[in-house]
Amino acid sequence: MTENNEAIKSVVIERTLDASAELVWKMWTEADHFKAWYGPQGASIPTANIDLNVDGTRHVCMEMDTPNGPMQMWFVGQHQEIVENKRLVYTESMSNAEGNVIDPSSMGMPEGHPATTQVVVELEELDGKTKMVVTHVGVPADSPGAAGWNMAIDKLVAYVSEAE
Questions:
Q1: Kind of pairing, strands 87-95 and 44-50?
Q2: Which of 6, 29, 98, 164 gets the highest tally of CB atoms within 10 A of its CB?
Q3: How many CA atoms lie within 13 A of 147 on its CB side?
């Protein structure tokens, strides 16, 4: 994949949050905080297991109502890079409840959706605020996944202001 194609197949969201990098870091790395904001509007996160070590596993369940009834989606991944309060990199794959990776097309993803993607969270403290850049490599910027990320980050911004 060329760099240009990589940029096309990545969701990149940049926000400045009115919170310390330490607090924003906790939103991504502590299960109770993560469960409070992750997912698009209307989604809930009943399960978020986060082993915050390099090669440690993330296993998350997202539930939401759809026109076809309730839906449950599981995701599994491994932490690849951890620089406390600055950078978090992890893989993400659709999985079953046991954490076994499943084919994305079985969950309605379009043909060619990668089985494993990568999420990069970069934090930079700026005068008591935090610039956060989230890049989800492998998810096109014009996809439903991008819309879901934007909704989730909106929820994160609101949640951080309550958590301060």
A1: unpaired
A2: 29
A3: 4
Domain range for 48 is 3-163
Q: Are 92 and 75 in contact (CB under 8 A)?
A: yes
Helix (H, G, I), strand (E, B) or coil at 95: strand
Phi and psi for 6 in degrees, rounded to 5?
Answer: -60, -45
Q: How far is CA 112 from CA 24, 77, 85, in A?
A: 33, 19, 34
For the whole model, what pTM was predicted?
Answer: 0.91
Per residue of the chain (164 residues), what is the pLDDT tens digit?
Answer: 444 454 558 999 999 999 999 999 999 999 999 999 999 999 999 999 999 999 999 999 999 988 888 989 999 999 999 999 999 999 999 999 999 999 888 877 777 778 899 999 999 999 989 999 999 999 888 888 889 999 999 999 999 988 86
CATH number, residue 35: 3.30.530.20
Name the domain count of the chain: 1
| Total residues belonging to the chain | 164
CA–CA separation, 39 and 148 (whole Å): 7
